Amino acid sequence: MKKAATSKDNIKGDDEHNRLLSYLQKQIPWTIWEIKQIRQNVFKVETDHEPFILKGFRSFHKFKLQETFTSSLIKEGFVRTYSFLPLAKDPPLFFEGIYFGCLFYISPSEEPFTYQKEIDRKEGLDLIEKFHHISKKLKDRYVTLLPPYHQREKWRIRTVQFKKNKSIVKYFLPKEMMAEYLAWAEWSLTGMRENEDSLETNQVVLHGDVAHHNMIRDDRNQLFLIDFDLISIGQKESDYLQYANRILPTLDWELNELEKFPQLKELTTSKQYLYALSFPTDVFREWNRCIRERNYIFPEKMRPLLSLTIEQFQKRKLFVEELKKRIDG
Q: Phi and psi (nearest 5°) for 220?
């Protein structure tokens, strides 16, 4: 029999890892060959039966919510996502304060999904649209279990935190540039507030984190949407706004390129979302995370952040000017 092995990259010490391995071997009906950590509380587990993903949750509620929600998605016809293995369901796996679910492993393609490719950007949007079509049907079922999503309030809090971090950010950004980012934010938030009543309601269950790493292309070239940690109830445009913000750097911050995607063209038909497109959410998010995690002491971690903030500044400035023309026109 193949001997159990471990991969302890980024794991907090050998003892903790060995305890997890020992615990799992008692709970799982298969022989474990290898455990490899992917990120915090997420592991790939190789067994003599089949590999699976071990994903941790901070509470029983969050664990059951994701298990139930993904099951609901699949039953309603959205099958391009993961599902939970029927292992140790009652009681669930519980190790050192974390509830763990076992997910079917999606064997990845040799060509990973990336926002750098036009075909991937389009396919990602089509997948989110399909997700919204199903999650709209589930909204009433989950409305009492999920928090409402408040886009403007979330961004207001993000802006406040960025202002608090100015004492550190000022050592990396020119004063005038930092002031302009904040001016765009205030202009955006004010415009969003003043135009809120003009919108129709398109409420769905939002994914909430449409980053490229939450889309996986499998070895049969099918695209899957994963990780529902941030699901909430809100307008579908909130997911599209996040998607637009993530792909705009690959489009050289060209508004006309954004409008080539049918789902994103809708964002340019109301003042509410024209204002929202100008909010520098990625800049504030990444700087706030950088300072919270003290990454500013590591040059290799600062390079992509400075590229995002400084090298793209002029193109983003032209983009905001184009948005203002649209609004005034």
A: -110, 15
Distance CA(252)–CA(318), nearest Å, equals 10
CATH number belonging to domain 118-328: 3.90.1200.10
- What single DSSP character describes residue 28? S
Residue 213 corresponds to which tokens in the numbers above? Answer: 């790493």
Count other C-beta atoms under 10 Å from residue 327's C-beta. Answer: 14
Structure tokens at 263: 């789902």
In terms of Cβ atoms closer than 10 Å to its own Cβ (0-12, 13-18, 19+), residue 221 is: exposed
DSSP character for 230?
A: T
Summarize pLDDT for 128-165 with one digit per residue, the tens.
Answer: 999 999 999 999 999 999 999 999 999 999 999 999 99
Report pLDDT for 90.
Answer: 66
What stretch(es) of the chain map to CATH 3.90.1200.10? 118-328
**Are the C-beta atoms of residues 28 and 100 closer than 8 Å to each other?**
no
Predicted confidence (pLDDT) at residue 290 exceeds the cutoff of 50? yes
Task: For 104-126, write each residue's pLDDT tens digit.
Answer: 999 999 999 999 999 999 999 99
Please count the helices (runs of H) and the strands (runs of E) in the chain.
Answer: 13, 10
Q: Is the pLDDT of residue 315 over 90?
A: yes
Q: Using the 8-state DSSP alphabet, how is residue 174 labeled?
A: -
Q: Where does the chain hold its CATH 3.30.200.20 domain(s)?
A: 5-104
Give the domain 5-104 fold. Answer: Phosphorylase Kinase; domain 1 (3.30.200)
Closest CA to 32 of 52, 56, 57: 52
